[in-house]
Amino acid sequence: MPSGHSKRETEIKLPLTGVAQGRRLLRQAGFRVIRRKVFEDNTIFDTAGSTLRSSGLLLRLRGCGRRVLLTFKGPALVGRHKSRQELELEISEAATFAQILAQLGFQPTFRYQKFRTEYTHPQSGGLATLDQTPIGDFLELEGPPQWIDQTAAALGFRPADYVTASYAGLYAQYRQKNASALTDMVFER
User: Fold this and answer.
1) Which of 46, 89, 105, 158 sits most deeply, having the most CB atoms within 10 A of its CB?
2) How much is the pLDDT for 122?
3) Is domain 4-177 in CATH 2.40.320.10, yes or no?
C-alpha cells in the first residue's frame, strides 16, 4: 500500500455469533487470509464542540501492529451500504502526531480497540475483515455494492442483517443497554 491514499469506501458490517463462525463462513466461501490477526487501537479526535462529528466527519489515529495510520472520513451516504470518502496516510509517530492535533484544537473523544484479520477471495472485487471487538464479533465487507451484496448472500446473510453504524455508534447503543460499560470500547484488562 502506498504511504497515503484517497478513495471512496463502501462497506457493511455483519454481526456474528463468534469468531469461529466468521472463519468457517469465509473459509467455506473460498476466502484466504491476506493479513493475519493484528491488534488495532483507534482514537477518534474532534474539537471541544464536536465540530467534526456534527458535520458527519471523522478524524482517526490508528495503531495497528507496527503501523500508525491517520484517517479522515467524509460524510457518510447511508442506504443499504455506507459509503464515504476516505483519505489515509501512514505516519511514523502516533504520540507526536496526537500532540500536533492537540495544538490544532483537536482532542481524543473516543477510543476503540479490536483484533482484525483481513481476507480476500481469488475472484474478489473487495475485502472481508473479521473484527473481534469488546462488544462482539463482526464481518466487515468493503468493496463495490454489487460485490458486497453477492458476498453477503454467499456467506448466508440477508440485507436485513447489514449494519451500517460505525463502531462508535454500535458502542453507544451497547452502553444504553449496559450502564456499567466503560466510556471507551476497549478490552478490559
Assistant:
1) 46
2) 85
3) yes
